[in-house]
Specification:
The chain has about 170 residues and is mainly beta. It is built from three helices and 14 strands. It is about 10% helix and about 40% strand. A six-stranded mixed beta sheet has the order 5-4-7-12-9-10.
Length: about 170
């Protein structure tokens, strides 16, 4: 297992991504207000990029660190021949979202609960985490994403295929 610290001695984000598909799924309930105002001065060319590779249902790295109020570009690269869905409704309700792209094509922006990552493709999310905390994520279905289902990540299930934890400090 490889560990990536995004932002130096910042928080820890455990990601086990089995995500794949073609769209961000909008979910306006609980959205952070005035996202564009919070991101107006961000230089996205200077944002830290974090790459996550999905291959045979395994995610590398499985542990990521994010700092609150720092911009990130999170890129998912799917090496599988099937799509996956990265689902973390609670986490995505605590970020200011600048943009989402799937295979380089911009997607509708706003609040969302997860993102599909296409087979042998990639997805990218530009965001700034605004609230510290610990948030579960899972490899969900398009159905999970459309409903904005919260995650049930229990003790001992925080890591491994399809489950993880996002920690923001």
């Amino acid at each position: 297992m490889r560990v990536v610290w995004a932002g130096g001695m910042a928080g820890l984000v455990a990601l086990t991504i089995a995500g794949c598909g073609t769209d961000a799924v909008n979910d306006s309930a609980g959205c952070i207000p005035d996202q564009s105002g919070r991101l107006a001065s961000v230089d996205w060319s200077a944002a830290q990029t974090v790459d996550v590779r999905v291959r045979q249902g395994d995610y590398d790295p499985m542990v990521l660190g994010f700092m609150r109020d720092h911009p990130y570009v999170l890129r998912f690269h799917n090496g599988d021949s099937e799509r996956h869905a990265f689902s973390s409704p609670e986490f995505f309700r605590t970020v200011a979202l600048d943009g989402v792209a799937v295979n380089g094509e911009p997607q509708e922006q706003g609040c969302f609960s997860g993102i599909m990552i296409p087979a042998n493709g990639s997805s990218e999310i530009r965001f700034m985490a605004l609230l510290d905390g610990r948030y579960g994520f899972k490899d969900g279905s398009a159905f999970d994403l459309a409903l904005g289902l919260d995650l049930d990540v229990g003790l001992g299930r925080e890591t491994g295929m399809g489950f993880g934890v996002v920690q923001v400090r």
